[in-house]
Amino acid sequence: MITLEVNGARHELDADPAMPLLWALRDLLGLTGTKYGCGKALCGACTLHLDGAPVRACVTPLAAAAGRRDTASCHVRTA
């Protein structure tokens, strides 16, 4: 079970830790603001911020988001 805090709301996700953060946000949480572009972290359409650093959500697994804080964009923080 992975706990994410997104836009101030906590969410418990029963998902594969290897699942890309993009698909967890879009498919599991229904948050479609972060877009799919190339799927290879080249175009930047899926960019969001974790700990103040931009990351490409299409190649960032849920496990990599654990323990990191949000600063902007999609406001993702794990708890």
Largest sheet: 3 strands, antiparallel
Shape: globular
Order of helices and strands: EEHEEHE
Instruction: Assign a percent range to the helix content.
Output: 10-25%
Q: How many individual β-strands?
A: 5
Outline the low-pLDDT stretches. Answer: none
Task: Explain this structure.
There is one protein chain. This protein is α+β, with helices and mostly antiparallel strands and 79 residues long. The chain is 15% helix and 27% strand. It contains 2 helices and 5 strands, in the order ββαββαβ. It has a 3-stranded antiparallel sheet with strand order 2-1-5. A two-stranded antiparallel ribbon has the order 3-4. The protein is globular and about 30 Å long. The model has no long low-confidence stretch (mean pLDDT 82).
Topology of this protein?
Layout: E1 2-6, E2 9-13, H1 21-28, E3 47-50, E4 53-56, H2 62-65, E5 76-78
Antiparallel strand pairs: 1-2, 1-5, 3-4
Short structural description:
Strand 3 and strand 4 form a beta hairpin. The protein is 15% helix and 27% strand.
